[in-house]
Write a structure and sequence with these properties.
Length: about 130
């Protein structure tokens, strides 16, 4: 009887671990409120910018990634492009890069809707007018 209880507890704990591991996402996005939704764009055409663009644009939302040590810069950039393209962005302005470059772009960009971890790379998805 005691062994059966231990087995049931271990099974429940392992199931809970799989559920929580399935919820973890190393990449994500968040739309800004009151911003129109646009159809997805081609990820190959999404620009990654490290400065404010000179063209007129609107801010769609934030895209972030938590790179693992084994991820290459090319993989991270392609992942950011794909996520930005999925929400209709023409470009992604990297405002925080605490993994590869450790810098913050300041400007009129609103950002900070989430609590980002120290390894995150955060960009503002924009669409040109």
């Amino acid at each position: 009887m005691k062994t059966k209880s231990i087995v049931i507890i271990l099974m429940a704990a392992s199931m809970a671990l799989f559920v929580f591991a399935g919820c973890y996402s190393y990449i994500g996005h968040q739309y800004y409120p009151d911003v129109p939704y646009y159809p997805a764009t081609n990820p190959d055409h999404v620009q990654l910018l490290r400065h404010e663009p000179g063209r007129s644009h609107i801010q769609l939302g934030e895209v972030w990634i938590r790179p693992d040590p084994g991820m290459s810069a090319a993989f991270v950039e392609n992942s950011l492009r794909e996520r930005a393209a999925a929400i209709g962005a023409d470009a992604l302005v990297i405002v925080v890069d605490r993994y590869f470059n450790r810098y913050i772009v300041r400007g009129y960009y609103r950002y900070g809707h989430r609590n980002y971890r120290e390894r995150d790379i955060v960009g503002i998805a924009i669409r040109y007018r």
